Amino acid sequence: MKFGKQPAPVADINEDELQVHKPKTEAAGVKAVMVALERAVAQAGVTRTAQSLLRLNQRGGFDCPGCAWPESDKKRKAAEFCENGAKAVAEENTVRTVGAEFWATHSIAELSGKTEYWLGNQGRLSEPMVIREGDTHYSPISWADAFELLGEHLRATTPDRSVFYTSGRTANETAFLYQLFARSLGTNNLPDCSNMCHESSGSALNPTIGIGKGTVSLDDIHDAELIFVVGQNPGTNHPRMLSALKECKDKGGKVVAVNPLPEAGLFNFKDPQTVSGVVGGGTPLADEYLQIKVGGDLALFQALGHLLLEAEERNPGTVVDHSFIADQTDGFDAYRDARRIIDWDETEKATGLTRVQIEKVAGMLVASKASIFCWALGVTQQPHSVDTIKEMVNVLLLQGNFGKPGAGACPVRGHSNVQGDRTMGIWEKPKEWLLQALDAEFGITSPRHHGYDAVESMEAFERDEVDVFVSMGGNFSLACSDTEALEAGMQRIGLTVHISTKPNRSHIVHGRTSLILPTLGRTDKDDKHPKGAQFLSVEDSMSVVHSTQGRLTPVSEHLLAEPVIVARMAEATFGPQHAVDWRGMAEDYDVIRDHIARVLPGFEDFNARVRTKNGFVLPNPPRDTRSFSTDIGRGRFTVSPLEYLTPPTGHLVLQTIRSHDQYNTTFYGLDDRYRGISGGRRVILIHPEDLAEQGFQDRELVDVVSTFQGVDRRADKFRLVAYPTAKGCAAAYFPEANALVHKENVARVSNTPGFKAMFVRFEPHQGGAAAAEESAGELAGTHA
User: Fold this and answer.
1) What's the rounded Cα separation, in Å, for the pair 536 and 590?
2) What is the helix (H) or strand (E) element at residue 311, kind and residue range?
3) Helical residues (DSSP H) of 588-712, grouped into ranges
4) Which of 363, 498, 514, 574 could form a disulfide with 510 if both were Cys (CB 3.0 to 4.6 A apart)?
5) Is the model's pLDDT at 776 over the cut of 80?
6) Which of 382, 402, 759, 440 is nearest to 599 (CA)?
7) Which residues contact 171 (CB under 8 A, 6 or more apart)?
8) pLDDT by residue (tens digit) across 699-718?
9) pLDDT: which is higher, 139 or 36
10) CA torsion angle for 136, 140, 143, 145 (degrees, to 10)?
11) Contact 487, 82 (CB under 8 A)
12) What is the 3-state secondary structure (H, E, C) of 657-693?
């Protein structure tokens, strides 16, 4: 390993350098520590790395810009972060900078051929930039001129021809100001990254349990008797969850992993902060592993419900919580009737599992008095995702797994404050109570009609119905589906505005005029205010709100904090006489929090409570009082038909995945260590039997064609890699495979893109077979 600061890469990804090794069967360990330190020091040097990592996820420090996994409210470790958290901080801490010289050197035409890996690794944006219609390069612009340009464009169009996108990295105070700006303007066009990930969770949970969030605490994870980890890869996407699962196991709990891919983080955790994790064998995690077919989860949980009801009939009063059901729920009789009979042949076909496997796991549920279901994007990005999650809720309701220790629903959010952003009002379909509260607090008139979500925004781009697109963080071009159509639509917009920390693809496929506004990150000190340094707040996956405050000196004096950027955009749009005191909020974030306290339930006395040792926990009726704030005041059993993915003859079901060196659209490197893939990203992981049946060889280059409702999408030059995934299923990295997801391929109700629901076939790439033979000896290793 190389330790020491390194310059930005000059060369881009060379897919011919792909290497394939045997997948790992354990996660973390000393290797994770070494990789984390190597990446951190390469970006920021030893001193800056130490200053940041010692404050990461600590009280009085800053919240990790990566995942939203919570911290303990008791004792915290000296290293309260994971490998990928350290990588996320390193990306932000970097001392590499991207200023006027970079943009003058590289034209848009040149940059359009660069990968996201190359762009992101060039460094932090250091000054505002603009590109106007007809220009070939971005050039510098003053902050004042940038805001005036934005204001001119917003005033020249109607509110609903403007779209305000939000990334989950945005802090609570920023998100509150941002949605207030949009609604003061007159639009609810507030798409966010939730639309692409856990929108299905909220769409299922709200009508069934009365809240769109999880109902467990970190202590519940520790105290559970049984935890299901469904459609989730914690070893890469939420590595600190492994420590919580280990504590559960240490207390005698059991874990069931449900996933098409045999991910290392599901099987064995080597905690590098313990002796056993360093020199021992680690902690085995999954007691049972169900290698389910992509999209088969609905059938699985219907079968589990059926088996629990059968077990209750055999031994009345031992399995189903009848008193809870009678007192707190509705719809049980219809659910019981629907699950009385099951077609096992159809269930086995849908899941790829045997009846024996499912019955064994059902027995574990019967024996458990406190169960938690955790899930992530493997569940939420299917056409039938909402029904699947409702079916999971059914099984939890059956045994009364709400409002008691060690039990509940746990959608594991991917991005640091994505849940907090929604709490703050970032939503295209706001509730009337929120709009009334905003209007009363600020003297505005919020629009009542619903706005665009992410997919609807993309469709509006195509119809030339958007004049201004503002992106608060994120990388919309690569985060959403149907890449070619999306990017063509973005380039038709009159003005695109990107509030960003680093260059990304969305800056390159810009509108006719485009602004890049560089902002402070989580680790940066925010002290250019009349009252001195300011702090922000975030909400984790378990509804805990706490402070976050960076302490590092920013890499450029030209960076502005996100709340300041929003306030100045509003001032430039509305003028100084607007009803809202934007400047007052930008100068003192306590003023923002006082407004939030008066507008949002659960945030009373916000300023005092957020300054306490561990912050505070938002109200959660299913967890706190075993009650459900649905429209009928009860938890709701639902009945859904059996549904699963049935690809046409000759096709496989393709799901997108992240690599271990990746967080959302940010690439830290090119090493997917646990899966044994390194040096490249354009790969298709495919079962060896499917490879043979499709008539291709391992490592052969192919073009991938997806079909949806008779329309094809295409992505060229991927390498097939034999891999032990579920038969009939394949996997490719996000966002390289996003081009294959038709924009109409979405989850019902939630409108989430079907990133886990593509039907694909392969065609030989020109020269592909020859290339495969030529490179066979160069690619290291083969999968077992």
Assistant:
1) 9
2) helix 297-314
3) 589-599, 606-609, 621-624, 688-694
4) 514
5) no
6) 440
7) 417, 420, 536, 537, 538, 548, 562
8) 999 999 999 999 999 999 99
9) 139
10) -60
11) no
12) ECCCCEECCEECCCEEHHHCEECCCCEEEECHHHHHH
Give first-to-last CA distance, the chain, whole Å. Answer: 27
Mean pLDDT of 335-347: 98
Q: What is the DSSP string of 212-272?
A: SS----HHHHHH-SEEEEES--HHHH-THHHHHHHHHHHTT-EEEEE-SS--GGGTEEE-T
Tokens read off for 1:
């390993």
Collapsing DSSP to helix, strand or coil, 473 comes out as coil
The string of pLDDT tens digits covering residues 202-242 is 999 999 999 999 999 999 999 999 999 999 999 988 899 99
Would the pTM of this model clear 0.90, i.e. be above it?
A: yes
pLDDT single digits (tens) 444-474: 999 999 999 999 999 999 999 999 999 999 9
For 528, counting Cβ atoms within 10 Å of its Cβ (0-12 exposed, 13-18 middle, 19+ buried), the class is middle
CB 168 within 8 A of CB 414: yes
> For the residues of 67-93, what is the DSSP string, one character each?
--PPPPSS---SS---HHHHHHHHHHH
Which pair of structure tokens corresponds to residue 361? 């796991």
| Tokens coding 270 | 């080597």
Between CA 745 and CA 753, with CA 748 as vertex, the angle to 5 degrees is 35
List the one residue out of 119, 137, 129 whose CA is nearest residue 504: 119
To the nearest whole percent, how much of the chain has pLDDT over 90?
86
Distance CA 496, CA 511 (A): 5
Q: Where are the beta strands (DSSP E) in 3-127?
A: 19-20, 27-28, 97-98, 124-125
Residues with Cβ within 8 Å of residue 144, at least 6 apart in sequence:
none
Q: How does DSSP assign 524-575, residue by residue?
A: B----STT----EEEE-TTSEEEEE---BPPS-TT-B-HHHHHHHHHHHHH-
- Per the rule left: phi > 0, alpha: psi between -120 and 50, beta: everything else, 373 is beta
| Amino acid code (one letter) for 585 | M
Provide the b/e sequence for 68-99 (b: ≥16 CB within 10 Å): bbbbbbeeeeebbbbbbbbbbbbbbbbebbbb
Pair of tokens at residue 432: 């009337």
Q: For 42-97, what is each residue's pLDDT tens digit?
A: 898 999 988 898 898 899 998 888 888 888 888 888 778 888 888 888 889 999 99
As a whole number of angstroms, the distance between CA 724 and CA 783 comes to 8
* Closest by Cα among 266, 241, 202, 271 to 68: 241
CA proximity to 570, closest of 438, 435, 470, 458: 470
H or E element, residue 175:
helix 172-185
Distance from CA of residue 407 to its chain's centroid? 24
Region of residue 676 (phi > 0: left; psi between -120 and 50: alpha; otherwise: beta) = left
The mean per-residue pLDDT over the stretch 493-514 comes to: 98
Instruction: Identify which of 636, 710, 195, 228 has the alpha carbon closest to the alpha carbon of residue 422.
Output: 195
Lowest mean pLDDT among 34-43, 136-145, 158-167: 34-43
* C-alpha to C-alpha distance for 100 and 129, rounded to whole angstroms: 8
**pLDDT tens, residue by residue, 389-443:** 999 999 999 999 999 999 999 999 877 899 999 999 999 999 999 999 999 999 9
pLDDT tens digits for 647-665?
999 999 999 999 999 988 9
Q: What is the pLDDT of residue 40?
A: 85
Which of 244, 284, 240 is CA-nearest to residue 266?
A: 284
Strands of 677-678's sheet, edge to edge? 19-20, 677-678, 671-672
391: nearest Cα among 347, 428, 433, 326: 347
The residue assigned the tokens 């070619």 is: 484
Q: Say yes or no to pLDDT of 780 above 80.
A: no
Q: Is the peptide bond before 735 cis (omega within 30 degrees of 0)?
A: yes
